[in-house]
Amino acid sequence: MTIIETIDKWLSDINQDLSKARPQDKWVNQTITEVKATDKGYSGAIYTNNYVYWLDRGRGPTSTNKKGRLYGIIKQWVHEKGITSPDISQNSLAFLIARKIDREGYNGKDFLKDILTTNRIEVLNKDLTVLYVDQIRSNIMKQWQSQQ
């Protein structure tokens, strides 16, 4: 397996575990993994909706001078989720949710720590080290043979 294939498999495994951890969330099916070679080495990333961080970590109450900024985001979320109430409009519901978050914050779901574990990173590090050493050894042998 190549270095890019190894990183890609690692990211795909993480993405799969995200799907298992949060199967009810639409964003899980919208994540994108990317691996590329750069002039400085290799990079890998998982891209997802920006609110996943806040879903995982939670947040405290909004500071006084920033209250009201959540309304638009919550309004979009309420509409996307199709959340309705027979008693109030979606806009009013979004306002009430945003106001509660502004006042009290909320606890995160804390699911990423079970997926992005130290052990998982160490395994990737070990696998990549083996591949790099093999690549270096192969390059040295090619150089040595070309000089014979």
The overall number of domains is 2
Structural class: alpha+beta
Task: Count all strands and give the number.
Answer: 4
Q: Strand order within the widest sheet?
A: 1-2
Structure explained in plain terms:
The chain has 148 residues and is α+β, with helices and mostly antiparallel strands. It is built from five helices and four strands. It has two domains: 1-59 and 106-148, no CATH class; 61-104, no CATH class. It has helices at 3-21, 52-57, 71-81, 90-104, 118-146; strands at residues 32-38, 41-47, 58-59, 106-107. It is elongated, with a radius of gyration of 23 Å. The chain starts with a helix and ends with a helix. The mean pLDDT is 86.
Q: Which key phrases capture this entry?
A:
148 residues; alpha+beta; two-stranded antiparallel ribbon; two-stranded antiparallel sheet
Give a brief description:
Helix content is 54%, strand content 12%. With 148 residues, the chain is an alpha+beta fold.
List the helices and strands and how they pair.
Blueprint: H1 3-21, E1 32-38, E2 41-47, H2 52-57, E3 58-59, H3 71-81, H4 90-104, E4 106-107, H5 118-146
Antiparallel strand pairs: 1-2, 3-4
